[in-house]
Amino acid sequence: MPGDREAVRHICNETGHLGDPIDPYFSDREVFADLHSFYYTDVASDSSFVIEDDGEVIGYLLGCLDSVRYRAWVKSDLEARILKRAFARGVFLRPGTAPLVWRFVVDWLREKPHFGDAGDEYPAHLHINLLPRGRKRGLGGLLIKNYFELLRANGLSGVFLETTAENTNAVGFFKSQGFVEDEKSLAPGVRAADGSRLHGLRMIQKLPSTQGV
Ligand SMILES: CC(C)(COP(=O)(O)OP(=O)(O)OC[C@H]1O[C@@H](n2cnc3c(N)ncnc32)[C@H](O)[C@@H]1OP(=O)(O)O)[C@@H](O)C(=O)NCCC(=O)NCCS
Fold this sequence. Notes:
- By secondary structure, the chain is an alpha+beta fold.
- The protein has a single domain (2-206), classed as 3-Layer(aba) Sandwich (Aminopeptidase).
- It has helices at residues 5-14, 29-43, 67-88, 98-111, 139-153, 168-176; strands at 49-53, 56-64, 124-130, 158-164, 180-191, 197-206.
- It has a 6-stranded mixed β-sheet, with helices on both faces.
- It is globular, with a radius of gyration of 17 Å.
Protein backbone atom coordinates (compact mmCIF):
# COMPACT_ATOMS: atom_id res chain seq x y z
CA MET A 1 0.00 0.00 0.00
CA PRO A 2 2.75 2.62 0.73
CA GLY A 3 3.88 2.28 -2.93
CA ASP A 4 0.29 2.85 -4.08
CA ARG A 5 -0.27 5.97 -1.98
CA GLU A 6 -0.19 8.50 -4.82
CA ALA A 7 -2.42 6.33 -7.03
CA VAL A 8 -4.95 5.99 -4.21
CA ARG A 9 -4.97 9.76 -3.63
CA HIS A 10 -5.43 10.34 -7.36
CA ILE A 11 -8.39 7.92 -7.61
CA CYS A 12 -9.91 9.45 -4.49
CA ASN A 13 -10.04 12.83 -6.26
CA GLU A 14 -11.09 11.42 -9.64
CA THR A 15 -14.14 9.70 -8.09
CA GLY A 16 -14.90 11.96 -5.12
CA HIS A 17 -18.23 13.44 -6.22
CA LEU A 18 -20.76 10.67 -6.89
CA GLY A 19 -18.07 8.78 -8.84
CA ASP A 20 -16.95 11.88 -10.78
CA PRO A 21 -13.95 14.20 -10.22
CA ILE A 22 -14.18 16.46 -7.21
CA ASP A 23 -12.47 19.48 -8.83
CA PRO A 24 -15.59 21.49 -9.84
CA TYR A 25 -16.65 21.47 -6.17
CA PHE A 26 -13.34 21.48 -4.33
CA SER A 27 -10.08 22.24 -6.10
CA ASP A 28 -7.52 21.31 -3.42
CA ARG A 29 -6.60 17.70 -4.20
CA GLU A 30 -4.15 17.37 -1.29
CA VAL A 31 -6.65 18.37 1.40
CA PHE A 32 -9.40 16.22 -0.17
CA ALA A 33 -7.12 13.16 -0.32
CA ASP A 34 -5.95 13.74 3.27
CA LEU A 35 -9.56 13.83 4.43
CA HIS A 36 -10.60 10.66 2.65
CA SER A 37 -7.56 8.41 2.39
CA PHE A 38 -4.75 9.50 4.74
CA TYR A 39 -5.74 7.12 7.54
CA TYR A 40 -5.80 4.12 5.21
CA THR A 41 -2.52 4.90 3.40
CA ASP A 42 -0.44 6.35 6.23
CA VAL A 43 -1.81 5.16 9.57
CA ALA A 44 -3.36 1.70 9.19
CA SER A 45 -2.70 0.41 5.69
CA ASP A 46 -2.98 -3.31 6.40
CA SER A 47 -6.68 -3.78 5.60
CA SER A 48 -6.89 -2.24 2.14
CA PHE A 49 -6.63 -3.55 -1.42
CA VAL A 50 -5.87 -2.08 -4.83
CA ILE A 51 -6.71 -3.36 -8.29
CA GLU A 52 -4.17 -3.01 -11.10
CA ASP A 53 -4.77 -3.03 -14.84
CA ASP A 54 -1.73 -3.14 -17.13
CA GLY A 55 0.48 -2.22 -14.17
CA GLU A 56 -1.61 0.84 -13.28
CA VAL A 57 -3.71 1.08 -10.12
CA ILE A 58 -7.29 1.70 -11.26
CA GLY A 59 -9.22 1.13 -8.07
CA TYR A 60 -9.11 0.49 -4.37
CA LEU A 61 -11.00 -0.71 -1.36
CA LEU A 62 -9.88 1.14 1.77
CA GLY A 63 -10.81 -0.94 4.77
CA CYS A 64 -10.70 -0.50 8.52
CA LEU A 65 -11.24 -3.31 10.99
CA ASP A 66 -11.63 -1.09 14.05
CA SER A 67 -13.91 1.89 13.44
CA VAL A 68 -13.79 3.01 17.09
CA ARG A 69 -10.02 3.43 16.80
CA TYR A 70 -10.53 5.22 13.49
CA ARG A 71 -13.00 7.72 14.99
CA ALA A 72 -10.63 8.38 17.90
CA TRP A 73 -7.82 9.06 15.44
CA VAL A 74 -10.04 11.44 13.42
CA LYS A 75 -10.73 13.44 16.59
CA SER A 76 -7.17 13.44 17.91
CA ASP A 77 -5.13 13.73 14.70
CA LEU A 78 -7.05 14.25 11.48
CA GLU A 79 -9.12 17.25 12.46
CA ALA A 80 -6.06 19.21 13.63
CA ARG A 81 -4.00 18.10 10.64
CA ILE A 82 -6.71 19.06 8.16
CA LEU A 83 -7.43 22.41 9.79
CA LYS A 84 -3.72 23.29 9.87
CA ARG A 85 -3.21 22.27 6.26
CA ALA A 86 -6.43 23.90 5.11
CA PHE A 87 -5.44 27.22 6.69
CA ALA A 88 -1.91 27.01 5.28
CA ARG A 89 -3.24 26.34 1.78
CA GLY A 90 -5.92 29.04 1.95
CA VAL A 91 -8.92 26.75 1.40
CA PHE A 92 -11.12 29.09 3.46
CA LEU A 93 -10.47 31.91 1.00
CA ARG A 94 -9.76 30.46 -2.45
CA PRO A 95 -12.69 30.54 -4.92
CA GLY A 96 -12.21 26.86 -5.84
CA THR A 97 -12.56 25.66 -2.26
CA ALA A 98 -14.15 28.32 -0.04
CA PRO A 99 -17.79 27.90 -1.19
CA LEU A 100 -17.92 24.24 -0.18
CA VAL A 101 -16.05 24.83 3.07
CA TRP A 102 -18.32 27.67 4.20
CA ARG A 103 -21.46 25.86 3.06
CA PHE A 104 -20.29 22.94 5.16
CA VAL A 105 -19.81 25.19 8.19
CA VAL A 106 -23.25 26.81 7.78
CA ASP A 107 -25.04 23.45 7.20
CA TRP A 108 -23.19 21.99 10.15
CA LEU A 109 -24.13 24.77 12.54
CA ARG A 110 -27.75 24.79 11.38
CA GLU A 111 -28.34 21.04 11.24
CA LYS A 112 -25.81 19.69 13.77
CA PRO A 113 -25.58 16.35 11.93
CA HIS A 114 -24.58 13.36 13.96
CA PHE A 115 -22.09 10.96 12.44
CA GLY A 116 -21.65 7.90 14.54
CA ASP A 117 -20.43 4.40 14.14
CA ALA A 118 -22.94 1.76 13.22
CA GLY A 119 -22.48 0.20 16.66
CA ASP A 120 -20.52 -2.63 18.23
CA GLU A 121 -22.01 -5.22 15.93
CA TYR A 122 -20.45 -3.48 12.92
CA PRO A 123 -16.81 -2.85 13.83
CA ALA A 124 -15.42 -2.65 10.28
CA HIS A 125 -16.01 -0.14 7.50
CA LEU A 126 -14.90 0.42 3.92
CA HIS A 127 -14.61 2.86 1.03
CA ILE A 128 -14.45 1.61 -2.53
CA ASN A 129 -13.69 3.53 -5.74
CA LEU A 130 -12.75 2.54 -9.27
CA LEU A 131 -11.72 4.76 -12.16
CA PRO A 132 -14.36 4.72 -14.95
CA ARG A 133 -12.40 2.22 -17.05
CA GLY A 134 -12.40 -0.27 -14.18
CA ARG A 135 -16.16 -0.24 -13.60
CA LYS A 136 -18.74 -2.89 -14.57
CA ARG A 137 -16.06 -5.54 -14.99
CA GLY A 138 -16.62 -7.42 -11.77
CA LEU A 139 -13.69 -5.71 -10.03
CA GLY A 140 -15.76 -4.00 -7.34
CA GLY A 141 -17.28 -7.34 -6.44
CA LEU A 142 -13.82 -8.89 -6.33
CA LEU A 143 -12.54 -6.21 -3.94
CA ILE A 144 -15.53 -6.75 -1.64
CA LYS A 145 -15.00 -10.53 -1.71
CA ASN A 146 -11.34 -10.16 -0.70
CA TYR A 147 -12.23 -7.71 2.07
CA PHE A 148 -14.95 -9.95 3.47
CA GLU A 149 -12.43 -12.82 3.58
CA LEU A 150 -10.11 -10.58 5.60
CA LEU A 151 -12.97 -9.70 7.97
CA ARG A 152 -13.84 -13.34 8.50
CA ALA A 153 -10.19 -14.25 9.06
CA ASN A 154 -10.19 -11.62 11.82
CA GLY A 155 -13.40 -12.95 13.34
CA LEU A 156 -15.40 -9.83 12.43
CA SER A 157 -19.01 -10.32 11.47
CA GLY A 158 -20.31 -6.82 10.83
CA VAL A 159 -19.34 -4.09 8.38
CA PHE A 160 -20.76 -0.72 7.41
CA LEU A 161 -20.10 2.00 4.86
CA GLU A 162 -21.25 5.52 4.17
CA THR A 163 -22.24 6.59 0.70
CA THR A 164 -24.38 9.27 -0.92
CA ALA A 165 -28.03 8.22 -1.17
CA GLU A 166 -28.28 9.92 -4.60
CA ASN A 167 -25.35 7.81 -5.91
CA THR A 168 -27.81 5.23 -7.22
CA ASN A 169 -25.09 3.19 -8.97
CA ALA A 170 -23.15 2.76 -5.76
CA VAL A 171 -26.28 1.99 -3.71
CA GLY A 172 -27.36 -0.62 -6.31
CA PHE A 173 -23.91 -2.16 -6.25
CA PHE A 174 -23.77 -2.30 -2.44
CA LYS A 175 -27.23 -3.89 -2.29
CA SER A 176 -26.06 -6.52 -4.78
CA GLN A 177 -23.20 -7.23 -2.34
CA GLY A 178 -25.58 -7.83 0.57
CA PHE A 179 -25.68 -4.41 2.24
CA VAL A 180 -28.95 -2.94 3.48
CA GLU A 181 -29.84 0.69 4.12
CA ASP A 182 -29.47 1.92 7.69
CA GLU A 183 -29.46 5.67 8.50
CA LYS A 184 -29.95 8.51 6.04
CA SER A 185 -29.40 12.21 6.75
CA LEU A 186 -28.66 15.49 4.98
CA ALA A 187 -24.99 15.72 3.98
CA PRO A 188 -23.46 19.06 5.02
CA GLY A 189 -21.69 21.18 2.41
CA VAL A 190 -21.99 19.04 -0.70
CA ARG A 191 -24.60 19.75 -3.37
CA ALA A 192 -25.69 18.05 -6.59
CA ALA A 193 -24.83 19.71 -9.91
CA ASP A 194 -28.27 21.41 -9.89
CA GLY A 195 -27.66 22.79 -6.40
CA SER A 196 -30.04 20.40 -4.62
CA ARG A 197 -29.15 18.80 -1.28
CA LEU A 198 -27.50 15.39 -1.09
CA HIS A 199 -27.94 12.82 1.67
CA GLY A 200 -25.44 10.62 3.45
CA LEU A 201 -26.55 7.01 3.66
CA ARG A 202 -25.11 4.42 6.00
CA MET A 203 -25.39 0.82 4.81
CA ILE A 204 -24.72 -2.21 6.98
CA GLN A 205 -24.16 -5.92 6.63
CA LYS A 206 -23.78 -8.87 8.97
CA LEU A 207 -21.46 -11.51 7.58
CA PRO A 208 -22.38 -15.15 8.11
CA SER A 209 -20.17 -16.85 10.66
CA THR A 210 -17.79 -19.45 9.29
CA GLN A 211 -17.52 -21.15 12.67
CA GLY A 212 -18.02 -24.85 12.42
CA VAL A 213 -17.74 -24.85 8.62
C1 LIG B 1 -19.63 1.35 -7.25
C2 LIG B 1 -18.46 0.54 -7.82
C3 LIG B 1 -17.42 0.31 -6.74
C4 LIG B 1 -18.99 -0.82 -8.31
O1 LIG B 1 -17.92 -1.58 -8.80
P1 LIG B 1 -18.03 -2.31 -10.22
O2 LIG B 1 -16.73 -2.97 -10.47
O3 LIG B 1 -18.49 -1.33 -11.23
O4 LIG B 1 -19.17 -3.38 -9.97
P2 LIG B 1 -19.09 -4.91 -10.44
O5 LIG B 1 -18.87 -4.94 -11.92
O6 LIG B 1 -18.09 -5.63 -9.61
O7 LIG B 1 -20.54 -5.42 -10.09
C5 LIG B 1 -20.72 -6.43 -9.14
C6 LIG B 1 -22.17 -6.74 -9.02
O8 LIG B 1 -22.86 -5.56 -8.64
C7 LIG B 1 -23.95 -5.34 -9.51
N1 LIG B 1 -24.09 -3.94 -9.77
C8 LIG B 1 -23.13 -3.08 -10.15
N2 LIG B 1 -23.66 -1.85 -10.31
C9 LIG B 1 -24.98 -1.97 -10.02
C10 LIG B 1 -26.07 -1.06 -10.02
N3 LIG B 1 -25.94 0.22 -10.37
N4 LIG B 1 -27.30 -1.52 -9.68
C11 LIG B 1 -27.48 -2.81 -9.33
N5 LIG B 1 -26.48 -3.72 -9.33
C12 LIG B 1 -25.26 -3.30 -9.67
C13 LIG B 1 -23.57 -6.01 -10.81
O9 LIG B 1 -24.72 -6.40 -11.50
C14 LIG B 1 -22.76 -7.16 -10.35
O10 LIG B 1 -23.60 -8.26 -10.08
P3 LIG B 1 -23.29 -9.66 -10.79
O11 LIG B 1 -21.94 -10.07 -10.25
O12 LIG B 1 -24.40 -10.52 -10.32
O13 LIG B 1 -23.28 -9.36 -12.24
C15 LIG B 1 -17.81 1.27 -9.03
O14 LIG B 1 -18.74 1.35 -10.08
C16 LIG B 1 -17.29 2.65 -8.71
O15 LIG B 1 -16.17 2.77 -8.24
N6 LIG B 1 -18.10 3.68 -8.98
C17 LIG B 1 -17.68 5.07 -8.83
C18 LIG B 1 -17.25 5.44 -7.43
C19 LIG B 1 -18.33 5.22 -6.42
O16 LIG B 1 -19.47 5.63 -6.60
N7 LIG B 1 -17.93 4.56 -5.32
C20 LIG B 1 -18.78 4.34 -4.18
C21 LIG B 1 -18.62 5.47 -3.26
S1 LIG B 1 -19.29 5.13 -1.65
